[in-house]
Amino acid sequence: MNQSVVTSFQVSDGVGRALEISLRGVDELLPKDEWAKKLARAEATGQPLRIKLGLDPTAPDIHIGHTVVLNKMRQLQDLGHQVIFLIGDFTSLIGDPSGRNNTRPPLTPEQIQHNAETYYQQASLVLDPERTEIRYNSEWCNALGAAGMIQLASRYTVARMMERNDFHDRFKAGSPIAVHEFLYPLMQGYDSVALKSDLELGGTDQKFNLLMGRHLQQEYGQEPQCVLTMPLLVGLDGVEKMSKSKNNYIGITEDANTMFAKVLSISDTLMWDWYTLLSFKSLAEIAALKAEVAGGRNPKDAKVALAKEITARFHNVSAADSAEQDFINRSKGGVPDDIPEVALSGAPLGIGALLKQAGLAPSGSEANRLIDGGGVRVDGSVVSDKGLKLAAGTYVVQVGKRKFAKVTLA
To answer: Which fold has domain 13-230?
Structure first.
């Protein structure tokens, strides 16, 4: 029998605060009134809500764009609710068709296992691992078997499936749609049934899949989950969503100095979106900081604070402080304290070959391009001659603002 979210609980100050935290930075929270009632019931009964986030391990590492939903999970975790970090090892075998204009190649079990090993470790830099339930959807998906899969498929129509934008657009364009792709949203929705989820989080591109969870829970006689979508984080270029393929990302395993410098490279306008989606400061604190900048305070101060917060989260406070000092040294033309040391032979060696062999340029032609652009320094002096040969000795070589090496040439 289907259960509805009917309750006479009043919205207390605590529920109002929890609702405000839930809504911070979100794209949509559906349906909001049902979520408020769930929060009220949890407060009245002391029974924490079950909050689910599923991620398919399609790559071995995650960047800070992925942490937008993890931050929301942490905020809800800190309110006392049970968060479930679901690794989609079974659904990865199908491949998520969301936002695709062609069939996604499925991963092999070996690739999935390799990627899954690092996913939770990295997510634990945001979530509290002691209070996080980790699950793999192969637990219940493998147990379904052929008969269970057919029964599950009977719970949804082809017409409804074709309402999904990516399927509709591909069908209209005459692009192939494999039958197994229809199984992906069904399996993601079935995860919510298996976990008895109260709320599922995802990016805006996951809305169809999240709503499938609501539908299937009702089909199986459960109270339907609410769904919360978070906007996709705009990357360092200030235009496109953060993506490794667009090289506008910050990896959460990058070294502290690089992470700090990359945050400082974003625009003053984009900074406030990042504060809302990535910072753990309260909205009141962010509003006060924004007012100070509007009143004349240097926006760089606010950006430095954000860079230190993000760097400390994925490293520690000491590393964030050191990264700030490193950035100051570089901006003044100074040399960082800790730079790689490289030993090379072949003196006298041409500057292009030296840059390539020292790992400061990927190729000789790129080395020449860097020299033409005035981006190469040896012992603080700009190199303008691509034919320069360096004799035996030790040199501090700099490329751009952030690449340094202490090269000993013999």
So the answer is: Rossmann fold (3.40.50)
